[in-house]
Structures are given as structure tokens and as C-alpha cells.
Amino acid sequence: MSNHQAAPIGVFDSGVGGLSVVREMFLQLPRESFVYFADTAHVPYGGRSPEEIKGFSFGITRFLLQQGCKMIIIACNTTNSVAYQDLIEAFDIPFIGVIEPGVDKALQTTKNGRVGLIATEATVNSGFYQQMLKSKNPAVKVMAKACPLFVPCVEKGETEGEAIRQAAKQYLAPILAEDADTLVLGCTHYPFLLPLLQRLTGRVVTFVDPAKETVKRARERLEADGLLNDSAQVQHRFFVSGDPVSFARIGGLFLEREIEQVEKISLE
């Protein structure tokens, strides 16, 4: 781990979803450099076993440490839900996950104590979100729904269209039927679907995007540790395990800025 203020922040996800966190970093941490790793050779993570996901996350973490990162943001709810404890015990570097910031914001937001969660199958099945919500507020009612079609669509840059609209209606129906007034986007891919989701729910639901709260928490930790970058020079690097051309194209659309270079590496 690097203690240097100018060292980059490591950010990783299974694919382009973690760019919703990067988008917030541009706003909240504009003077920080970062190294982003997208494990696109193995996306989606949602249907994979906890053992596979832990294996991927350990390989990615070692790579980010080799890049001299001073902090790692796990911009992947699935990894956060099944591997976070293992990572913080195995590596001497600050980790910031996306789940607890989202949970705290949801509990602050709900008025009727009914919180919905949409996430990958692995995240929902882990029970991590549900347990944390209940541990912080035993009275809250949690309705969780896996949305397996969302990540593959977002990875292709598809955020609109009849097929994904029908899938979203099906996923949201049981949550809305339980009168949830707050809905956590429990996957970093999902904020890119927010306009569609908001049209389907109207004003009855407040959405929680954990990316905003995650980056806020990362900034607070950097300040506390004296690691905020005070240099005017920043460098952003992007790495993938799959197709760099596709990632640059889709990622550029989501970030609304060109990704000039994407490097492909293998962690096998």
C-alpha cells in the first residue's frame, strides 16, 4: 500500500457498473487519480459462486496494490456482499465498500420503514444487505428482488427499450406491492437505468444510489488519514480482463467523456 497523497485510488467492478462510482469521484474527488479495473472476462458476477467471486477479488486487489494504490473502493455490490470481510482481513489497505453507505442512506430516507432492494442474485442470496438493514433498524421491512437481466443489458449499453422495460416492471412489481417508499440500487450498474426505473415508479419511491454515499465516505477516510491529494496533477488508468474496445465505447457513453486508453491484462 502506498501512503503517498498523490498515489491513486483503486476502484474495481465486474464491468462498467463501477463507473457510476467513478462518475461521483469526478464530482467529489476531482484531484484524485485512480486505477479502475473491470473484470469483463467474468461479468456478470451475479450467478457465480462466492468462492469464484472471492478468487477474482483477491487477484484484482493484488493487481491494484502493485499499482501503488492508497485505498481501494469495491465498486461492486456482489463482491462487497460475499468477499468484503475476507479482503479487509487479508490486505493492509483501507477498503471502502458500497453496501453500508447505501444502507445508512436508505434508513435515513425511508418514512414508512419499508425498504426495497434490487440487486444481483448473489447479492440478494448472500443476505448481506438485508442483515445490515435489520441490524441497524430491527423494525425496518426489507423486500429484496434479484434482477439478473439488468447487468448484461447495461454491459451492452442498453438502458432503454421494451425488453428491459418489461423486465424492470416484473422486478419492481412485488416491491411496489409492499408499499416500499425507498429503493436501494444494490448494484453499481443500476444507476445507469435510473431514468427508466423512475418512470416506472413515479413519485412514490425514492431511489438510493450508494455511489454518492460511497465516495463521500471515501473522502472522509482520506481526510482522516491525511491522504487527500493536494497536487494539481491527476492520472486515470483503466484496465480490463476482457475486450478493451467495447469497454472504452460503453464506458465513454456512461461517463460522457472519452476513455482514451484501456489496457487489457490477465489475472489468471
Question: Overview of this structure, please?
Answer:
The mean pLDDT is 94. Helix content is 46%, strand content 17%. It is built from eleven helices and ten strands. By secondary structure, it is of the alpha/beta class. The protein is globular, with a radius of gyration of 18 Å. The longest helix has 17 residues, at 50-66.
Share of helix among residues? 40-55%
Largest sheet: 6 strands, parallel
Strand order of the largest sheet: 4-3-1-2-9-10
Shape: globular
Distance between the termini: 22 Å
Q: DSSP strand (E) fraction?
A: 15-25%
| Count of DSSP-assigned helices | 11
Q: What structural class do the secondary elements suggest?
A: alpha/beta
The average pLDDT value, as a whole number, equals 94
**Global Rg:** 18 Å
Tally the beta strands.
10
Low-confidence stretches: none
SSE pattern, N- to C-terminal: EHEHEHEHEHHEHHEHEHEHE
Features:
globular; 6-stranded parallel beta sheet; 10 strands; 268 residues; alpha/beta
Summarize the topology.
Blueprint: E1 9-13, H1 19-28, E2 34-38, H2 50-66, E3 71-74, H3 77-90, E4 95-97, H4 99-109, E5 114-119, H5 121-126, H6 128-136, E6 141-146, H7 150-155, H8 162-177, E7 182-186, H9 194-201, E8 206-208, H10 210-224, E9 236-240, H11 244-255, E10 262-264
Helix pairs in contact: 1-10, 2-3, 4-6, 4-10, 8-9
